[in-house]
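Task card 7
Instruction: Convert sequence to structure tokens.
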Amino acid sequence: MMLHLPKYFRNTLYFCLIINKIVLIKMNNSKIVEQLSHFQQTWTLDKLQTLSLDEYTNTLPTESFCYWIEHKLDEIASIKGGSSYKFGIYKRQNTDTLFANNQYQTDGIYAWLKKYGATKNEAFDTIRQHIVAIVRAAQNKQLQLIDDIDIGTAIKWKIAFSYAPDIIIPILKTEKIRRIVRLMGMPNYQQATMYHMQQFLCHAKPPTQNTLDYATELLGEYEHAPFAEEEVNNYHQPEQNFWLLAAGEKGEYWQRWIDENIVSIGWGFTGNLALFYDEQAVLKCLIEAKYKDTKPTNNARACFDFAHRMQLGDYVFAKRGTDTLLGLARITGNYEFSETSLPHQHLHTVEWLAIGDWKVSEHLPIKTLTDVTPYYEQMVKKWWEMITDTELSDLPTFELIKTPKLEKNDHLVPKNANLVEKTTPKPIIISKKTTSLAYTLAHAMADLLLPQATFEQLLRLLQHKKNLILQGPPGVGKTFIAQKLAYCFMQQASTEQVITIQFHASYGYEDFLQGFRPNEQGQFVLQQGIFYKLCQQAKTQPNKPYFLIIEEINRGNIGKIFGEVLLLIEANKRGQNHQIALTYTPNNTFFVPDNVYLIGTMNTADRSLALVDYALRRRFAFYDLVPQFNETFKQYLTQKKVSDALVLHICTHINQLNQRISNDPHLGKGYQIGHSYFCNPPVFTDLLTEKIWFNDIIDAEISPLLHEYWFDQPDLVEQLITTLVWIG
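Output:
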């Protein structure tokens, strides 16, 4: 074994210790191979398909599937520790703990993630289907499918490795593998999925070396390597940022934040911060208005960051003083300026995930607002785990939309928190003046590749039919266009009146309209679904349009989800004159207001989907979106500093490929390759990084599609891929 260790390891005692550890681990690898063989014989695919809840959970600790994955196979990429929610469902040891959260559910004995189902049986059925899908993908060497399966990253890739140890490197925690591929020089490592990072490591693995020895070597070389100076701040770049925000002096605004589901800052005399386009402009305003003899740089940065850098989906730790954390929230609303909400007039609406009172050992920054994302390893992970009692290794993915307000105690409440008593939720008492910037057709067309005439036609169809479905192959920008249609229709870039959801096989009437769900006390109570809430909100403001964007609309059982309301979404069946009683509230009536619009998206290349219900087709306008490898696309890539040679290569060869796909009688236009795959190039430092970026897309994203399209013609696929690869 030849190790190429960094210079700071060479000729040191640390180097000797690492080598010793590697030798010991390699001696255990033969034992691990035996364990894997025993595991695969015990938990066959046939057995998993009929797996019971007892066989899955830790209720039978020496026999259960979860026990095998976490403990018996512990020497392989350990996933010990953290929350038992990583398995989706588990049997509780302490049944006295209070549950008060909008993500978790319990029946007193079992606890599970609500997204998997309303009951333990529904949840486990969903989880079992996910596990079967993981195993099939691993055994069929279709690893690209695993990223999209809705289970925590470490656990699903541990399962996948256990069934396909020859093609997966057993380094499965996201932050650990991301650091390794970064140090190995992987381009675009920040955005890489686990599949992409696995592919990168597999390509770098010597052909004669097994994955266990290779993982041992990588961990020995990189896991404990000292951080380079620039790496401390840059190596972790999550999609969401993390902020530390003071709740006023001595936490004086904390109760208001809880009551109104907001976070806020002062300096209201600046007026609307959205009108300031850089930090220096804010600083100048502060000096002229108040700080004549000082230079309030930190205050200016706080104002600018609060309005321009804090984004939907970011997380906020609330603090009091320099030693206490008060809560954790996720931002659900864009920046707003309220003329009446004195003295804190700058606002974001939030969803409170946890509230309490936690002392911290470190000295918190004195300044009002701090971006703590660069201190992810040193502070953020520790705070998160202290407050939520869960790991941050698999950060949940959220729809970045404004969600309905939660009741006060619908939070994740850890054991040491000061619990908030359950009360009727208070209304928002501030009078808000919208600060959403005007959004016109010109704004929409600024970064759209569609012809303007097409976009205008879509607006007319939406106006006339009120229900529109955008369908097309992957990568044509269906969701992107749907959002722009909503903004242009509202004439403002705001998510205040837009909700996005995704249909799936388990989505039902109860999620969409209303149904009985168990509460924390185990009692079944009537709860309203997302479309019901949207309609009720729209009725209060009939002059404002409201939008529901439904991703993957054909993945759901339309009759089951819409029920009797399928009639009411028709354009000529809107309004109070067509109100009807719903299944669960026969004594009350319901109608869909005129100002509610539905936009669905549909992937025409998904073979697993059934044909769309004809009842749905009659109520929606359908529009086919096609790839746009045109002159506008060429100009767009040129503006992104992509070389002329590569721009020409992309447009020429992808158009040729799409023509071949269209002409294939078993495929057709619905299976073409969309332009969105190439719409987010990084800043290239040289032609080599540009070449790597493009060829990575071909290898990791386009190639798997082609192998699926022509699964029985591997030679043809290899020929097509060879043509697509850019030599430069």
